UniProtKB/TrEMBL annotation:
Gene Ontology annotations of biological process type: fatty acid metabolic process
Protein name as it appears in the record: 3-hydroxybutyryl-CoA dehydrogenase
Native source species: Triticum aestivum (Wheat)
Keywords per UniProt: NAD, Oxidoreductase
Name of the gene encoding the protein in the UniProt record: LOC123071057
Sample GO molecular function, one term: NAD+ binding
Pathway: Lipid metabolism; fatty acid beta-oxidation
Chain sites annotated for binding NAD(+): 19-24, 42, 101, 106, 128, 152, 283
Domain named 3-hydroxyacyl-CoA dehydrogenase NAD binding: residues: 15-192
Residues marked Important for catalytic activity (site): 149
Upper lineage: Eukaryota, Viridiplantae, Streptophyta, Embryophyta, Tracheophyta
Pfam families, per the entry: 3HCDH, 3HCDH_N
PROSITE patterns, per database record: 3HCDH
Binding site for CoA: 58, 65, 128
3-hydroxyacyl-CoA dehydrogenase C-terminal domain ranges (all copies): 195-291
Amino acid sequence: MGTQAAPAASEIAAVGVIGAGQMGSGIAQLAAAAGCGVFLLDSDPAALSRAVASISSSLGRLVSKGQLSQAACDDSVKRIKCVSDVQELRGVDLVIEAIVESEDVKKKLFVELDRITKPSAILASNTSSISITRLASATSRPSQVIGMHFFNPPPIMKLVEIIRGADTSEEVFSQVKSFSERIGKTVICSQDYPGFIVNRILMPMINEAFWALYTGVATKEDIDTGMKLGTNHPMGPLQLADFIGLDVCLSVLRVLHNGLGDNKYSPCPLLVQYVDAGRLGKKRGLGVYSYR
Ligand code: CAA
Ligand code: NAD
């Protein structure tokens, strides 16, 4: 295997973030705010423009609260370079992949990253559910492939769930843990099973909320208010599903259902129908609720 000593967390100076959607934009912001040079790549140029606007607005909130100086905000924005060619990532120390939640599409990207990036680079995936071991097996450096699972919105949520694949080295694990702490996160560690820790528990709740709506137990508003006021969740499960993206929720449930083989993870037909209809949630202006 073509592995080389991966860089120490303090030596991670250049980070590639692939996918400039909800998650990639927030992850790029965190890495830039920690002083790293960031190459942010997306196959859709419009996603890059939206990401730059969302990063500026997110950092702007911190400036207006007095938590960040205007100069530090400007420096962070300047450290992010939007790119459209994966070749630009050849010199980075760490890649964090945050593209669509599809094993086939992610595997193709990992094959390309393995070919392009320097041998010491760490390849991390922000996947919500997909096997890190299988993504790693698409590369010649499985010891340097790891799950680095952020939560939405990344600048606010304090957690990073780290997933070791079957061959992830201890050295890479501790470097990614230190890097996550350097960008202000608390780390938990999961074995490589479908949905890891948080989504294994969260997604069945979201699915159950869809079943409650589908079978007429209550209105969407009452389901959400019930869970917000009855269990002190910041968002109701249907509102949270819209916030995450219904496509992401459905993909995760399919991974849980296929991987764990239990009908309790079978996606509710209403969730499937919404995704089929392009009602992907807040990011598209329509999901369970309308945001138009
Ligand atoms: N950047 C910077 N600051 C932000 C921000 C962003 N993107 N989004 C929110 N904020 C800040 C606001 O400025 C505000 O700060 P102050 O309290 O200091 O004023 C604070 O966060 C709260 O924001 P809002 O008042 O706008 O809204 P809110 O109180 O409703 O909070 C929320 C928004 C933080 C998203 C909250 O509703 C929440 O925690 N929701 C649940 C989120 C959650 O569960 N995420 C995990 C989903 S699962 C997942 O991510 C994994 C997966 O694989 C699917
Ligand atoms: P999103 O739809 O907001 O963004 C995905 C971006 O990836 C899009 O801009 C798309 O153009 C781009 N993309 C797709 N295929 C690409 C490719 N081959 N090369 C380059 N760019 C490509 O999705 P998201 O919500 O940011 O989720 C991204 C990843 O993060 C998924 O794996 C998801 O499961 C995971 N995740 C999502 C959340 C969440 O709450 N949404 C939380 C944690 C993890």
